[in-house]
Design a protein that fits this description.
Layout lengths: L2 H16 L25 H9 L4 H19 L3 H24 L6 H15 L1
Helix pairs in contact: 3-4
């Protein structure tokens, strides 16, 4: 821990002991964790629409990762590396499908079912 951290911690503890954090606005009330203050103003409306439609950041991140892996597979020349990337893509696709199923989103379930069965056979 560096010097500035030690000083900061001491000042925070002293302020707590002196009661400076008592009676702050919102004290004792639940925090609103759904606020979008961390979202840039230009993207807030799109973020709100997607959130109301049921999309989560985790889903979007997973979808981006799947697209990145697909791009890597296309340009990969090493067969072993390509195989490993394909395995990783398969795992992420199953996870993504599972997330959609939990939200009861209609997917092309026959394709996913066949794909899931193939993956299970290879893994078992």
């Amino acid at each position: 821990m560096d010097f500035s951290m030690i000083i900061s911690e001491q000042r925070i503890k002293k302020a707590q002991e002196d009661g400076e954090f008592d009676n702050l606005p919102g004290y004792g009330k639940p925090q609103n964790l759904d606020d979008d203050l961390s979202i840039p103003p230009a993207l807030r409306m799109a973020h709100r629409i997607m959130k109301n439609a049921g999309y989560s950041n985790e889903e979007m991140d997973l979808k981006k990762e799947m697209m990145r892996i697909e791009d890597l597979i296309r340009v990969c020349e090493d067969d072993l590396e390509k195989e490993e990337l394909q395995r990783s893509l398969n795992e992420k696709m199953v996870r993504y499908n599972s997330m959609l199923s939990k939200r009861r989103v209609k997917t092309n379930s026959s394709i996913f079912k066949n794909y899931e069965e193939k993956i299970e056979k290879k893994l078992l």
